[in-house]
Amino acid sequence: MVSEHSDATGGETAALALKILVAGGFGVGKTTLVGAVSEIKPLRTEELLSEAGELVDDTDGVDQKVTTTVAMDFGRITIRSGLSLYLFGTPGQDRFWFLWDELSQGALGAVVLADTRRLEYCFPAVDYFEHRRIPFVVAVNCFAGARTYGAQDVSRALDLDRGTPVVLCDARDRASGKEVLIRLVEYAGRMHTARLLDSVG
To answer: Cα–Cα 20 to 30 A to 103, which of 21, 43, 92, 167?
Structure first.
């Protein structure tokens, strides 16, 4: 997605807007990350957890969670002049995964948030993006009281493809979240460039 805007000299410069997904398991911090980094009031589609939902949503380890995203979160952040990211947070529960195909259309890449206390909950997101060849980084959300693991430990535990970045972050902190997004844009840019070169080579 590219738009034009005037620069200080009156000339036209290209403004680049990139679509990024923020994915991961239930209760891992997707809504928190989008809200922390967004420069606009984020759009949220959260609903209170219901008794009916308790039968299908595994809240083990996130007992204090009282709401859940039922469609998507949306936010925007300007990384630098002329480069903005549109963030789409995906719902984490299995029953909403049918929305992922629609949300992933046109995405440059994705952030897969991980919680080391419940690492297995991000396997579906990792598999989803690997199978569709969508570049992604794994961002380990460092929750208070959780055991700290290094990036290599997490990479091995998730059996990630060689070179897939793993970064530690605090989803509540804007600077930390922005650094994750910058890493993703850099990595996705390298991946897309390499694929383009392969296709013409």
So the answer is: 167
